[in-house]
């Protein structure tokens, strides 16, 4: 029991340390290379911001609420101790993004491109990540809860002490992913690629068939109860 308690504590995701007093910021005034520290960035979600000139941004100890960044392209994004609520990031291209102690809640991130993302102590809750491009991303002590990752590309990703709980992983790609203490409890795995290659994964008993079938196929193991004829099956040794 003690070892289990230590393991649970080791996987615990730290929440963002958002500043107690936040200063409102005008998203339209954000400039390339800005450091936003201790701000409240709110958006009405109706019109995307004109961010053609913004390529680098750092946000710390802040909260983003209802901000629409559809299709934004950032070459260098750093998020630390930030809560992101109800924001629109569909089709965003975040090259070289880094996130630590960040919480995404109720965000739309369909088609997000964040290859090589470095995420540590990051939590995604009830987020739409269908078709997200997360190749070679690194998730260290992260948690994705009630998220839709249908068709997401996580090939070559690193998933350490990370939980995907009640997520849709149907037709997602986990090929060549490196897992270490990866939990998939309650997640759907219909057509998920790369399951046979995963190691050090924790599943629930009701996921046995979903995981076992790819393993059997990978090792060319067939199940055929009618393979032997009646005479052969009844023959003495």
**Class of secondary structure makeup:** mainly beta
CATH superfamily: E3 ubiquitin-protein ligase SopA
Please name the CATH topology. Pectate Lyase C-like
Radius of gyration: 21 Å
The residue-averaged pLDDT reads 85
Number of strands: 15
Biggest beta sheet attributes: 13 strands, parallel
Q: What overall geometry do the principal axes of the alpha carbons give? A: elongated
Helix residue percentage: 10-25%
Number of domains: 1
* SSE string: HEEEEEEEEEEEEEEEHH
Topology:
Elements: H1 2-11, E1 23-25, E2 34-37, E3 39-42, E4 56-60, E5 63-65, E6 73-74, E7 76-85, E8 93-94, E9 98-105, E10 118-125, E11 138-140, E12 143-145, E13 158-165, E14 178-183, E15 201-202, H2 208-218, H3 230-234
Parallel strand pairs: 1-3, 2-4, 3-5, 4-7, 5-7, 6-8, 7-9, 9-10, 10-11, 10-12, 11-13, 12-13, 13-14, 14-15
Note down, in words, how this protein is organized.
The chain is mainly beta and 237 residues long. The protein has a single domain (2-234), classed as E3 ubiquitin-protein ligase SopA (Pectate Lyase C-like, 3 Solenoid), CATH 2.160.20.80. 11% of the residues lie in helices and 30% in strands. The protein has 3 helices and 15 strands. It has helices at residues 2-11, 208-218, 230-234; strands at residues 23-25, 34-37, 39-42, 56-60, 63-65, 73-74, 76-85, 93-94, 98-105, 118-125, 138-140, 143-145, 158-165, 178-183, 201-202. The strands form 2 sheets. Strands 1, 2, 3, 4, 5, 7, 9, 10, 11, 12, 13, 14 and 15 form a 13-stranded parallel sheet that branches. A two-stranded parallel sheet has the order 6-8. The longest helix is centred in the last third of the chain and has 11 residues, at 208-218. It is elongated. The chain starts with a helix and ends with a helix. The model is unreliable at 5-9 (pLDDT under 50).
